[in-house]
């Protein structure tokens, strides 16, 4: 039987296996850097930054202490942002959740072909996870006692690093913090500092490029979507979402709000990620706002056939623009640079 997180969590309750926090110990695993996948991007091939050595003690995203005898080399990653971050740091993960989905949605960094497939992000295959012999497992959670953290601590002596995937109060800052945390755990702090400096410079240049753009309105909403049954579902990115923050940095004004979301029978913008959900009619609530969207999700054919869509001011005036494929809305610094470039092209109608 393939053990997933859900089945393992149930077993943990029955057996009441108790370990001290896995992040506070170390693990002995077979293999090392020599048999781990290698990051082969041009940036990593030309990278001259150093990797630290020696023991590591860090505080993770939910306040847990994580101790390692040495920088992690064989990391398993359960979320795409963190997988992208690892590749940008030139540390190729040995195992990743849903690498096929990653390849569809994320283009900033390419995973190694031999990476172990851990199944879905929400329900990873624990047998595959432990079989990959990681020396660090990187997960995303908002609480130290989240089910995934408890299960991994109870089932394995592999250290667990918990990152917080989003912060609506400071989405760009959180993106940087997650990246820096993974860098600390892998000894790649010098590389992280260089990447983040490049990101800041890229954003500053983009601000300057669009500073004199003459838009009919600065209001905007970015959205993605999908088909659910026979219904077209639209997911607007509200205030606090990472892509919304990029737009704001470039002088745009978020158009999707809690008030709009609740007016269409929803519970308001998600407080963790800044995301909402509506139908196509809901987009009429943003009036003249510029519309930016992803083409992934298989929903755009239905979108473009809709009379509602084609009657929206932004569509009629050519201010509804699709971002390039593979620009991930919850990624790291390199995805962030791609998003900034997509916004610039849309604003300047390139």
UniProtKB/TrEMBL annotation:
Q: Which controlled-vocabulary keywords does the entry list?
A: Signal, Transport
Q: What is its main location?
A: other
Cleavable signal peptide: 1-22
> Region labeled Disordered — which residues?
29-57
Can you say where in the cell this protein is located?
Cell envelope
An example Pfam family from this entry, by short name, is Peripla_BP_2
Q: Does the keyword Signal apply?
A: yes
What residue ranges carry the coiled-coil annotation? Answer: none
Q: Where is the composition biased (Polar residues)?
A: 38-54
**What family is this?**
Belongs to the bacterial solute-binding protein 8 family.
**Name of the protein in its database record:** Siderophore ABC transporter substrate-binding protein CdtB
| Organism of derivation | Leucobacter alluvii
């Amino acid at each position: 039987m393939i053990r997933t997180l859900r089945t393992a969590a149930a077993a943990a309750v029955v057996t009441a296996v108790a370990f001290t926090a896995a992040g506070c110990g170390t693990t002995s695993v077979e293999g090392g850097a020599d048999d781990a996948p290698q990051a082969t991007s041009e940036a990593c091939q030309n990278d001259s930054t150093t990797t630290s050595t020696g023991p590591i003690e860090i505080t993770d995203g939910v306040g847990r202490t994580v101790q390692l005898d040495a920088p992690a080399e064989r990391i398993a990653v359960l979320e795409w942002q963190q997988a992208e971050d690892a590749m940008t740091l030139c540390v190729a993960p040995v195992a990743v959740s849903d690498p096929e989905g990653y390849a569809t949605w994320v283009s900033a960094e390419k995973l190694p072909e031999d990476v172990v497939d851990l199944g879905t992000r929400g329900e990873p295959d624990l047998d595959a996870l432990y079989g990959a012999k990681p020396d660090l497992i990187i997960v995303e959670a908002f609480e130290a006692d989240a089910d995934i953290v408890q299960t991994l601590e109870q089932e394995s002596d592999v250290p667990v690093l918990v990152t917080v995937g989003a912060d609506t109060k400071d989405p760009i800052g959180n993106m940087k913090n997650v990246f820096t945390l993974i860098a600390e755990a892998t000894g790649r702090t010098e590389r992280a500092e260089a990447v983040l400096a490049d990101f800041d410079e890229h954003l500053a240049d983009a601000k300057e490029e669009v500073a004199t753009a003459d838009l009919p309105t600065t209001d905007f909403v970015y959205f993605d979507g999908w088909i659910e049954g026979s219904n077209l579902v639209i997911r607007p990115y509200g205030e606090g979402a990472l892509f919304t923050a990029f737009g704001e940095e470039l002088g745009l004004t978020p158009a999707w709000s809690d008030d709009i979301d609740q007016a269409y029978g929803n519970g308001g913008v998600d407080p963790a990620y800044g995301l909402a959900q509506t139908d196509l009619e809901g987009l009429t609530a943003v009036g003249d706002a510029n519309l930016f969207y992803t083409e992934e999700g298989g929903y755009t054919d239905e979108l473009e056939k809709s009379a509602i869509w084609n009657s929206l001011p932004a569509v009629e005036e050519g201010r509804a623009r699709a971002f390039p494929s593979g620009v991930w809305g919850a990624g790291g610094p390199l995805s962030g640079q791609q998003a900034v470039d997509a916004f610039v092209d849309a604003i300047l109608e390139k």
